[in-house]
Specification:
By secondary structure, this protein is α/β, with parallel strands linked by helices. The chain has three domains: about 55 residues, no CATH class; about 230 residues, Alpha-Beta Barrel (TIM Barrel), CATH 3.20.20; about 35 residues, no CATH class. Helices cover about 25% and strands about 15% of the residues. The chain has a nine-stranded mixed beta sheet with strand order 1-2-3-4-5-6-7-8-9. Strands 10-11-12-13 form a four-stranded antiparallel beta sheet, with no helix packed on it. Strand 11 and strand 12 form a beta hairpin. The protein starts with 11 loop residues before the first helix and ends in an 8-residue tail after the last strand.
Length: about 350
């Protein structure tokens, strides 16, 4: 039977009362709360079967978050060093991040911005927004604005409308992208007023962050359909996480759930080395093998690009898996069978072709 939660869970008392943590965990929960925010909205909390299942593991605090390894860093992708004005991160020549707020519907325990996000943090006031728009107007090479945070869909419809109209007024901004967890975390927020605010003559994309197939509830799919009904395409990004989606079966289930919801898998991220996230780490070699295990098993529509955001703000690069061998003279098929490649690019089969 699905449990119902009347409000977002934020404190040790609430987590224990909801049955998502034992009383013995109280001291550890309170220690983590002193460093990092907690929020588990009702729709997401209802999916948790036990605290360390693939849903609970993503959002229930753990004392391990207070342990930092030598490989971890406080700003793993260089946001702070690449921020010319508050709210703007300029990493690539033709696009920027715009962070209008640092509030999320839920706080992922593996987030690389965990030290900055929280219920009281990071809303750009009118003056800061105007300064960000002024910076954008002064940089005509910028053609794309990626709204992130925090979660942009936590903005009020009025605030979102103000931002959208300001971006529309900058001629060289042709593409607007919104990165969000809201449709799976708090689907009721995706209402007509918010969608009206997203109306634009620019190319608008929504990028959904989801990590497990169970996040695609009927309510989440309905919220996604409301977005899609406004002619806004939705693509998906996920983080490869130990204990969440690190098996062939769980990753396949996630990718199939995305496609079934008309969400094109876009990126599978290697975990960013934020402090206290070691328990989620999956080695790159294991990630490559995991993705290779799905080649030929799922439709190409479900195939994401496995990427690493190079620490220090140097950008994203694809990690493979690779199928070329011997400097392009041979190739592996999805079953791992080697085929030589002829001078004009055709493969000389190492075995007889299967009858179709």
């Amino acid at each position: 039977m699905t449990r119902l939660f009347p409000r977002t869970l934020r404190t040790a008392d609430e987590l224990i009362a909801a049955g998502l943590a034992p009383e013995a965990a109280r001291a550890g929960l309170e220690d983590v709360a002193a460093a990092y925010a907690t929020a588990i909205p009702p729709a997401f909390a209802a999916l948790i079967e036990h605290p360390d299942d693939p849903i609970g593991r993503q959002v229930i605090p753990d004392p391990a978050e207070l342990l930092t390894t030598a490989a971890e860093r406080s700003d793993p992708i260089g946001d702070e060093a690449l921020s010319p004005v508050p709210g703007i991160v300029h990493r690539y020549a033709d696009r920027v991040l715009l962070k209008p707020l640092l509030v999320c519907p839920l706080y992922c325990r593996f987030c690389f911005r965990r030290e900055h996000v929280g219920p009281d943090g990071g809303l750009l006031d009118d003056a800061a927004l105007d300064r960000a728009f002024e910076w954008l107007r002064a940089h005509p090479a910028i053609g794309e604005v990626v709204m992130t945070g925090g979660d942009p869909l936590m903005l009020s419809a009025r605030r979102m409308d103000r931002i959208m109209r300001a971006l529309e007024a900058i001629p060289h901004i042709q593409t607007i992208r919104i990165h969000t967890r809201v449709p799976v975390a708090d689907p009721a927020r995706v209402d007509a007023a918010l969608l009206d605010a997203l109306e634009t003559d620019r190319a608008m994309w929504v990028v959904l962050h989801a990590n497990h197939a169970r996040e695609f509830t009927p309510e989440a799919r309905a919220a996604l359909r409301r977005i899609q009904s406004r002619a806004i395409p939705v693509i998906g990004q996920s983080v490869l996480l130990r204990g969440v989606n690190d098996t062939t079966e769980t990753l396949e289930g996630l990718l199939r759930a995305m496609v079934a919801a008309r969400v094109k898998p876009y990126y599978l991220h290697q975990l960013d080395p934020a402090p206290g996230t070691a328990r989620f780490h999956v080695p790159i070699a294991e990630g490559r093998a995991l993705l290779a295990s799905l080649r030929g098993r799922v439709t190409g529509l479900a195939w994401p690009t496995y990427v690493l955001d190079i620490p220090g703000g140097h950008g994203k690069v694809p990690l493979g898996p690779e199928y070329l061998r011997d400097e392009g003279r041979a190739v592996l098929d999805p079953q791992g069978v080697r085929h030589e490649i002829g001078p004009t690019g055709e493969a000389n089969l190492a075995e007889k072709p299967r009858t179709r």
